[in-house]
Amino acid sequence: MKSRSFAYATALVGTALAALLAAPGAYAQEKEQFFPVLPYRTGAYAPNGVPWANGYVDYLKLVNARGGINGVKIIFEECETGYATDRGVECYERLKGKHGGATLFQPLSTGITFALTGKAPADKIPLVTVGYGLSESQDGGVFKWNFPIAGTYWVAADAIIQEIGLKEGGLAKLKGKKIALVYHDSPYGKEPIALLQERSKMLGFELQLLPVTAPGVEQKSTWLQIRQSKPDYVLLWGWGVMNSTAIKEAQATGYPREKMYGGWWSGAEPDVKDLGMGAKGYNAVAMQHGAEPGSKVVKDILSMVHDKGQGTGPREEVGSVLYMRGAMSAMIGVEGVRRAQERYGKGKVMTGEQTRWGLENLALDQKKLDALGFAGVMRPISTSCADHMGANWARIETWDGTKWVFTSDWLQADEQIIKPMVKAAANKYAEEKKLTRRTPEDCQT
Amino acid sequence: MFTARLLSRIGDHLAKVAIAILVYDRTGSTALAATTYALTFLPWLVGTPLLSAVGDRFPRRSVLVWCDVIRALLVLAMALPGLPTVGLLGLLGVVSLLAPPSDSTWSALLADVLSGDRYVVGSALSNVSSQLAQVVGFSLGGLLVALLRPRGVLVFDAATFLVSALLLRGLVQARPVEAAAHAGDHGRWREGPRLVAREPILRFLVLLAWVTAAFAIAPEGLAVAVVRQHGGSAVDVGLLTAAQPIGVVVGMPSLRIKGLYLAVATLAAQFFVDWAVLRIPYFTNNSSSGSVSVPSLSVAGLSIDSPARKYLFCLAFLCVFALLAKNLVRGHIGREWMAIRDMDVAAEVIGIRPVYAKLTAFAVSSFIVGVSGGLWAFVYLGSWEPAAFSIDRSFQLLFMVIIGGLGSIMGSFFGAAFIVVLPILLDNMPQWFGIPLDTAMASHLTFMIFGTLIVFFLIVEPLGLARLWSTAKEKLRLWPFPH
Fold this sequence. Notes:
The structure holds two protein chains of two kinds.
Chain A: H1 2-22, E1 32-37, H2 46-65, E2 73-78, H3 85-95, H4 110-123, E3 127-128, E4 146-147, H5 153-168, E5 178-184, H6 187-190, H7 193-203, E6 206-212, H8 220-229, E7 233-237, H9 241-253, E8 260-262, H10 269-272, E9 283-286, H11 296-306, H12 321-344, H13 352-360, E10 363-364, H14 366-372, E11 381-382, E12 393-399, E13 404-406, E14 411-412, H15 415-433, H16 440-444
Parallel strand pairs in A: 1-2, 3-4, 5-6, 5-7, 7-8, 8-9
Antiparallel strand pairs in A: 9-12, 10-11, 12-13, 12-14
Helix pairs in contact in A: 2-11, 2-12, 3-4, 5-7, 8-9, 12-13
Chain B: H1 2-27, H2 30-39, H3 42-51, H4 54-57, H5 60-78, H6 85-97, H7 99-113, H8 117-171, H9 191-198, H10 200-229, H11 234-251, H12 260-279, E1 292-293, E2 298-299, E3 302-303, H13 307-330, H14 332-342, H15 344-349, H16 354-381, E4 383-384, H17 391-404, H18 409-432, H19 439-460, H20 465-478
Antiparallel strand pairs in B: 1-4, 2-3
Helix pairs in contact in B: 1-2, 1-8, 2-10, 3-6, 3-7, 5-6, 5-7, 5-8, 8-11, 9-10, 10-11, 11-16, 13-14, 14-16, 17-18, 18-19
């Protein structure tokens, strides 16, 4: 009797295990490039995370509709992170080996980027952080696997300072002025502080730092302080619900919105739509692109993806600021793979290492960008071993009550200031983590 | 009397830090620095059984004064330049040897000076002050070493001994030796160890106490080496060694409150720590982004980088701690906790000290949670910012214990599995069954199902999953696996 019941038990357990193990093993060898997507469609940052994710996925679908990357189709899988570092790490671990291996990761969160920066080199998967991440990861000599393409927070902060200087009639006129930074109390919000302090020393303006506890719904005391100290300009470095709360509070305390400048993650429709005319005059720095409903890529997405019923998200969202950023991020990833194919074999599936080379040798000139549909939206991007950023242009956009319009010329961040800071910070990182700078031979591979 | 003891205790701890730093800086050897630290404890082993009787043979006040004076002179000798390291360690051993007779004489003198209720108060006060002395001594130790150099601190320590001796001589009354039948004392000290050696259960308990102490004290012995290797200053060393007593000191205000109020008080501590880690740059190693990370982990030359190694590393910790916890619960401390939990007034009546029981509960749980937090942050996450330890994390820990089953070790395993693994399973289930589900919807569904299950379990089985498991085991023994 005892052995029979034991046999039953073993049989039961055995079949259960076999079923569990067999199911995922059904994936055969595939000729597809796997793009994992790490969005946050839930939580306090969802209003801004959703359009970015929709843009990203829609662009990947567009590439498939156009025939893939030289014939290689893209498959993608979403994993909800909720902007939490631990869930991001869990998603990374879950997706990095699926479907033949992840091509690259774009975590859309500076916190998750910090965590993955330590893991990605070991797994040989590049981290693309278009417009966010560590500012010092621009230095490819230390950060071999990080790509903050098209801009980092120091570029954004510098562009804002230059614009304020232009408004005042010259950077020298900033001496004696007071600039307040209302920032999200997280690694993301603290990023621009280093550059702003450097500029404050150089130009002689007073920098007032006002942290806001995450997620940023309670800002009454912050804006009370602003009302008391009356800074000349307020810089907003928020995300998600913190942005709209800040502008609402500015309206409530009567701070002129024209004197407010947001980072490029604080200048999108979800932040100002509900306020409408109340946010009129609010400025934000735009990382090359703004809201581009008239661009060719938007038209292509609408015709080839949305009209076929494949659209992720509502049609009205296509072309909004964060949607465009998601599409741009996807485009950069795809072009990295395409560039890698030029060296390692056209029409083949690229590994993470090969994609890393592609991302490090991007040469997107204006002709290529126009062909892809980004004419008038982006400027050329050219990365190298030493410079993983590729471009440092930005513009200022202003909310006119109903839409975002560009109100400045192209601004270029001052490399004289940023390059030494990047080098120093990268060296410090290398020292802490006991890494060595890459040799020139390593750059050639 | 209290001032004298407080002073000499603080001096003691100051000297410990200073000497450890001195030895490490001189020799660069971690082993020697740790040995120095151990030397301050070893003499207790020899001194307590052999020398404590001194307090009964001679006038107590004189014993105390002489002990302090001799220690002051020895410490001054240690501060002499040109003393070889061996000599330093030898002198340290002798100084520590004088501590047990001084301590036991002091306790006996206290009984003479105070009587009845006042003795109880005095005894409690002495406990508090000794813990405070540890905290103050260690933290100040680091600071003073940075300011005065180790030799200066040794001179300071000698000064505290002298001041304490003067206070005792001047302000405490001399009391005559009690005429006593102490003649037969010579052989009595042997009875203690003999009793322990005879009973296996006592042997195990003593071994357990040694092992636990070893784990607890080992980090302090290594503190100097660790901090120096990471380029830290003397202040950091002092703070590191003060960490443990700080936990006890922080736990003390909570001793007078219980139940819901205690929960709320610890919640206040949570927000304070949140704020402190964000606003005080020292806690995040002055990093500009407020994010903390480690270069790479390695144990005895083996680097812990692959998931398998990380898992085994954490598993090792888990096994040791689970074993410790299980045995602690079955021991007398665990029984004290259970008695206080069931009916604290009755427990106090039969002689269990509620203060001690609550403090040890705080200390042990803080230690275990601290270790697990460190492992989670550095082994799993790799790099984290203060938001990773938000109030949600605290709630998760609380729910793990409540759902798993309060008062059960097995329950914490069940609770942890429920809270950590179930959301991941629910997230993945749509894929396994081939149902195409939008990730946002899947995430929301996970929350809803998770919440419903929590409510369900608490209604069906308020004692938690552990109780469900033991009930299931009993039922399974009837059918279909009778044995």
